[in-house]
């Protein structure tokens, strides 16, 4: 299934007196890896939470593959083919790697909970199918060797990859990756970049990426949107963004001693 295109126009959101997003336009092409960057508090999470239906914009509109929506609804995300990963690892600790990945297909299950308990023919067929797809995705992400292990016994980087596998198993059209490299070693980041690229090439999925590591952003993204103080200040290719004076000002104007944001746009 091809990746989805998404366009947000004039999106505004506030929390009490704080204007988190001020008339933001966002134009994401189908099949692109599109990063949303900006200094702390710029509005990145707010924007992603609007795309995931967690927040309803006060003004503005959303077009998802030509469908005009006043807001996204969390209940419809799976149907639209939207999945996400989270900043902090969210896995079922006691379960195996394969079981965790199979969980990414539960919304597609047609057997009833009762059928699953008594092991009806349909439930068994669906489980066998999910197991087969999970094993195939795990192989693509180089996780075959650990597929039967309890997920919490894996390294941090491998757990992040399991999350990616779970997000990919249902064949999403839009994948939101919230800091997929957070806490990873340099070597793990290099591998993760290759796996995200492979996922995009394999299925054509559109990827929205929030990531603080500018080296990763510049290497992985087709296009980048830059937010600052809730406003979109730039959108373009990595080479355009790296030399954009407004972007350089926004990053250099903010002290980020702790997260390295100001370290290098030109990474
Ligand atoms: N639930 C909330 N309640 C109140 N204010 C909020 C809430 N969420 C975000 N904000 C405020 O909205 C603004 C944008 O925050 P947001 O988290 O979207 O930025 P961000 O770019 O994701 O930041 P970071 O890189 O630090 O995660 C900030 O001023 C923030 O303090």
UniProtKB/TrEMBL annotation:
- One GO CC term, this protein: plasma membrane
Keyword annotations for this protein, in alphabetical order, are: ATP-binding, Nucleotide-binding, Transport
Domain ABC transporter span(s) in chain numbering: 6-254
So which domain of life are we looking at? Answer: Bacteria
Q: Carries keyword Magnesium?
A: no
Signal peptide extent = none
Give one GO molecular function term. ATP hydrolysis activity
Nucleotide-binding keyword on record: yes
Q: List, alphabetically, the PANTHER family matched.
A: ABC TRANSPORTER ATP-BINDING PROTEIN (PTHR45772:SF1), CONSERVED COMPONENT OF ABC TRANSPORTER FOR NATURAL AMINO ACIDS-RELATED (PTHR45772)
- Report the protein name in the record: ABC transporter ATP-binding protein
Organism for this UniProt entry: Acidisoma cellulosilyticum
């Amino acid at each position: 299934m091809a990746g989805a295109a998404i366009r947000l126009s004039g999106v505004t959101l506030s929390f009490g007196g704080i204007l988190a997003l001020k008339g933001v336009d966002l134009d994401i092409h189908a099949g692109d890896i599109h990063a949303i960057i900006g200094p702390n508090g710029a509005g990145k999470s707010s924007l992603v939470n609007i795309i995931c239906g967690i927040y309803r914009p006060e003004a503005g509109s959303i077009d998802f593959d030509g469908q005009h929506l006043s807001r996204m609804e969390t209940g419809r995300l799976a149907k639209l083919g939207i999945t996400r990963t989270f900043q902090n690892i969210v896995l079922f600790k006691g379960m195996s790697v394969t079981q965790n990945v199979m969980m990414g297909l539960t919304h597609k299950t047609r057997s009833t909970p009762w059928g699953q308990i008594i092991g009806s023919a349909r439930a068994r067929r669906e489980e066998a199918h999910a197991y087969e797809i999970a094993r195939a995705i795990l192989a693509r992400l180089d996780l075959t060797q650990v597929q039967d292990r309890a997920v919490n016994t894996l390294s941090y980087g491998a757990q992040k990859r399991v999350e990616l596998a779970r997000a990919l198993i249902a064949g999403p059209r839009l994948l939101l990756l919230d800091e997929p490299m957070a806490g990873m070693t340099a070597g793990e980041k290099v591998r993760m970049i290759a796996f995200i690229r492979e996922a995009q090439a394999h299925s054509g999925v559109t990827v929205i990426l929030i990531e603080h590591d500018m080296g990763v952003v510049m290497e992985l993204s087709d296009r980048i949107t830059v937010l600052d103080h809730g406003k979109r200040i730039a959108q373009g290719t990595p080479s355009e963004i790296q030399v954009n004076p407004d972007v350089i000002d926004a990053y250099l104007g903010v002290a980020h001693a702790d997260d390295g944001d100001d370290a290098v746009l030109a990474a």
